[in-house]
Design a protein that fits this description.
Structural class: alpha+beta
Strand order of the largest sheet: 5-4-8-2-1-11-13
CATH superfamily of the largest domain: tricorn interacting facor f3 domain
Number of helices: 19
CATH topology of the largest domain: Immunoglobulin-like
Number of domains: 3
CATH architecture of the largest domain: Sandwich
Distance between the termini: 47 Å
Number of strands: 21
Largest sheet: 7 strands, mixed
Radius of gyration: 25 Å
Helix content: 25-40%
């Protein structure tokens, strides 16, 4: 009877809180303004046979207001018990929400300064992808990786799953003894005999940066502070591809100050990883689709490295402020690549980004609220609206400020911004106030020229968007004109083109190409058998509408093996428009190879 009375009283408290709308982050049930988690001791076992993670998550807590409950986020977790210093605590799971999961509501005593949750993840946990040996490069060992961003950490770990809550952590993870476990923390470099690994992250991070990978991995040093983990079949290729990583880190420090995370290592995941990269501190996760063999796609490494300042060091307070993570990171990425490869190279990246932005805004609609930098994601899964707008519109705003104010002064401001706000959160309104007070108010004429609030709170692309020109792309445009005029492809001067020039070429070919035209291009440049995933993706987007037969098997093979959502969504959209039956058949066969992030996007499109 006491449990029933307690449950009703807790439900009453939750109902009262929801009426008052006490949540700071509407994508988290937690109330860190009352009780906040400050440190996590995690002790779990990874069970490949049952596809689950189970164990104890013990949190050190700070009860700021003498509150009677701690609320954690959970999604599909089985909670076995909750204790505080070996004494049981009453708890219950609140009402399910299809996007947010459930609140785990725990009764607190006044003296409680830590809480232990004993739990087990569900086999279909949204954050976890369990891969059979056949789905890996080596074909002999299984693999597990997590993807916690944006709000998926709660599906493998009970936590205050909001970017506004930071905590340090230590972990002990038991895995099969023929596998190596690595996390977003200090990491081992070799397997041990018992399969038990310990980790420590002394810098506080939000839950979306909690990360775990388990597989048959090897480690190689790239430099004094950088290295790479990969399956043995990919390790040498990865070492070659990422050889510039240490140099990138030194360039980044020269521009924006000391690196705060001790090491920058990279984990190459199986191809089912749904993103290009994930900026987990100390251990960036990357897709193997950037292993092009010529280091032409490693601007992605510069991007994830840049997150060590914008995102990991100064973090968006909520997902409505996502552009503060990504816009800054794209800007910083291109500054790194400019130092590494020259301004002509970084300008190509910027122009390709502008093409992506134009396409996204055309698709969404120029006046749609999702084209604002400041978003309103109430009642929506954050992943739905995390588009090129945050990345590229954010970049062009910062490029505009740099051009208007001057690079030297803007760099001084940014270094101060990262230093003064290190290990803190930032929302859009606070940033607007900060940049006005520390930079723009001193120069009112330049401030008026930038029109900051039009960019942040307004739709589409403002008229004062910087114009970027590329001599390298001019040469590509001339090659396209030669092709249109019927000149022999053998005469095209393209031997030294990078991936970016080829992308520009494929994107700007005439829309009315025939199968014969595509065959000529394929014979000349072997596009259908390219080892470069970016080029393959652009080629397939040209070949699908035409029904070019020679590209059909390579396309199906690509869709069966690559899980990167950036590629999958446009390819399936084009294929479904051309041949719905074929799109459904391929997707049915390939779906099991994709992470839940990709599956949820594609299910809505195809099923």
């Amino acid at each position: 009877m006491n449990k029933i009375i307690y449950a009703f009283s807790m439900l009453f408290l939750v109902a009262c809180n929801s009426k008052k709308d006490l949540r700071i982050d509407l994508h988290s049930f937690s109330e860190p303004h009352h009780v906040i988690t400050t440190h996590l001791d995690l002790n779990v076992e990874v069970d490949f046979e049952n596809e689950c993670i189970s164990g104890e998550a013990r949190y050190h807590i700070e009860n700021k207001t003498g509150h009677k409950q701690l609320i954690l986020d959970s999604h599909g977790l089985q909670i076995h018990k909750v204790t505080s210093k070996d004494k049981n605590r009453n708890y219950f799971l609140g009402e399910k929400d299809s996007i947010l999961g459930q609140p785990l509501i725990i009764e607190l005593d006044k003296e409680d300064d830590e809480i232990s949750v004993f739990y087990r993840s569900a086999p279909n946990s949204k954050a976890l992808q369990w891969l059979s040996p056949e789905q890996t490069a080596g074909k002999r060992h299984p693999f597990l990786f997590t993807q916690s961003q944006a709000i998926l950490a709660r599906s493998w770990l009970p936590c205050q799953d909001s970017p506004g809550v930071r905590f340090t952590y230590e972990a002990q993870v038991k895995v099969p003894n023929d596998l190596l476990a690595v996390m977003s923390a200090e990491n081992p470099r070799e397997k041990n005999v018992d399969g038990v690994y310990t980790f420590k992250m002394e810098q506080a991070i939000p839950a979306y940066l909690m990360a775990l990978g388990v597989g048959n991995l090897e480690f190689r040093e790239l430099g004094a502070s950088t290295g790479v983990y990969a399956e043995p079949a990919l390790i040498e290729k990865s070492v070659y591809e990422f050889a510039e990583t240490e140099n990138m880190l030194r360039i980044a420090e020269e521009i924006y100050g000391a690196y705060a995370w001790d090491r920058f290592d990279i984990l190459v995941l199986p191809p089912s990883f749904p993103y290009g990269g994930m900026e987990n501190p100390r251990l960036t996760f990357v897709t193997p689709t950037i292993l092009a063999g010529d280091r032409s796609l490693t601007s992605l490494i510069a991007h994830e490295l840049a997150h060590s300042w914008s995102g990991n060091l100064v973090t968006n307070k909520t997902w409505n402020d996502f552009w503060l993570n990504e816009g800054f990171t794209v800007y910083f990425e291109r500054r790194i690549m400019e130092r590494l490869e020259g301004i002509a190279y970084s300008d190509m990246l910027s122009l390709l980004g502008r093409q992506d932005l134009d396409h996204t805004i055309e698709t969404i609609g120029h006046s749609h609220s999702d084209t604002h930098l400041k978003l309103d994601l109430s009642g929506r899964d954050p992943v739905e609206a995390l588009t090129d707008v945050a990345y590229e519109k954010g970049f062009f705003l910062l490029r505009l400020i740099e051009q208007t104010i001057g690079r030297k002064q803007f760099d001084f401001f940014l270094k101060k911004y990262f230093s003064e706000n290190a290990f803190q959160v930032m929302d859009t309104e606070s940033f607007v106030s900060y940049i006005n007070n520390h930079l723009l108010n001193e120069q009112p004429k330049l401030k008026e020229k930038i029109r900051l609030e039009d960019w942040v709170y307004g739709p589409g692309i403002p008229e004062n968007c910087p114009t970027i020109k590329s001599d390298k792309f001019k040469a590509v445009d001339q090659a396209i004109q030669s092709f249109e005029r019927g000149y022999s492809l053998a005469n095209l001067d393209c031997k030294h083109w990078s991936s970016h020039e080829w992308l520009h070429f494929l994107r700007h070919l005439p829309r009315n190409l025939t199968g014969k035209d595509l065959k000529k291009l394929d014979v000349a440049f072997n596009f259908s058998k390219s080892g470069n995933s970016e080029i393959l993706n652009a080629w397939f987007l040209r070949s699908i509408p035409v029904g070019y037969k020679a590209a059909e098997k390579p396309l199906e093979q690509f869709l069966m093996t690559v899980g990167r959502r950036k590629f999958l969504k446009p390819l399936y959209e084009a294929l479904y428009l051309k041949n719905p039956t074929k799109a459904r058949r391929i997707y049915k066969n390939a779906r099991g190879n994709y992470h839940s992030v990709s599956r949820e996007t594609l299910d809505e499109l195809i099923l």
